[in-house]
Specification:
The chain is α+β, with helices and mostly antiparallel strands. It has 11 helices and 6 strands. It is 55% helix and 10% strand.
Length: 300
């Protein structure tokens, strides 16, 4: 594998205006009114109606989530590893989200005056027009940008190093890059393991023998993973590929309604998926011998 040929680095920058502001005067007033110290609380006010920024925030959150799910961990400076195999999918997806944000931003700015007038009523004496950015300023407050750069190799790092120890330095750098790559592939194992374990957990019953809540995202997350993992499997790890294919065949194709009380509930399918998920977890456990794979937290 030639890392400089098969992968690149990608960083994501999302700009946003929160629409919230710390009000020092209101905080002081509340403290005095309650005979409290002025440093025990802060009054943060919402400058616009709650619904005003919902669409924009949802798109930016989706961009962040998809950026992480379609790339691999690399360093602590914000760069992530993007495989050539996933480049077209990543850029198409992020460009689509960026275009969506531009349209939502235009609608937001178009309705901005109405939002401000509603805020004037909602905030009462807390309203101050000087706290609101202009429409022109808002155009730069919301954006999604990603930057692609090549993966530097060891020769790049030591090109200007004047030392008799360059070979040792080169070996150290190459070893460090190899460790980062193995950590990146390990991240794919972890993602699959957590998703499968979550399915297994949610197919249990509660103390009264009733099925636990099983959300559509349990299966949709699995489907997203088995779609992207092959494109991120930069080493061509055959064990990972095999596990991914098994997850795809045994779990991803199942409809959520067949696993929970519904008109199409099928207890036979539910039992089979539970057994398959548990069996897959045993295989994943072999990859994580030092610790138990912690399940992902459920998002309501």
């Amino acid at each position: 594998m030639d890392l400089t040929r098969d992968a690149m680095l990608v960083s994501l920058r999302i700009s946003a205006w929160s629409g919230r502001l710390y009000d020092r005067e209101a905080s002081y007033h509340v403290a005095v009114h309650h005979d409290a110290s002025t440093n025990v609380g802060r009054y943060n006010k919402r400058l616009l109606p709650k619904a005003a920024l919902v669409a924009l925030n949802a798109t930016m959150s989706e961009a962040r989530t998809r950026h992480y799910s379609n790339s691999l961990p690399w360093d602590d400076k914000g760069s992530r590893l993007l495989t050539v195999a996933n480049y077209e999918h990543y850029t198409g997806m992020m460009d689509g989200l960026r275009e969506r944000l531009v349209r939502q931003r235009a609608r937001f700015i178009e309705d901005y005056d109405d939002y401000v007038e509603q805020a004037r009523l909602d905030l009462g004496k807390l309203f101050r027009i000087g706290e609101y950015p202009s429409k022109e300023d808002l155009r730069d407050r919301f954006s999604i940008r990603y930057r692609i750069t090549p993966v530097p190799d060891s020769d790049h790092f030591i090109a200007r190093l004047a030392s008799d120890d360059t070979e040792r330095v080169k070996r150290d750098i190459e070893r460090h890059i190899e460790e980062q790559l193995h950590d990146a592939v390990g991240d794919l194992y972890r993602r699959l393991a957590e998703a499968v374990e979550r399915v297994s957990e949610r197919l249990n019953e509660d103390r009264d023998g009733k099925p636990l809540v099983f959300r559509d995202t349990m299966i949709s997350n699995i489907r997203d993973l088995v779609d992207v993992v092959p494109r991120l499997n930069i080493f061509g790890d055959q064990r990972l590929a095999s596990l991914c294919e098994q997850v795809k065949d045994r779990i991803a194709g199942v409809e959520p309604d067949s696993l929970r009380p519904s008109r199409t509930f099928d207890p036979v399918v539910r039992d089979r998926v539970k057994r398959d998920a548990d069996a897959l977890m045993e295989q994943f456990a072999g990859y994580f011998p030092a610790q138990r794979v912690e399940p992902a937290r459920e998002v309501a």
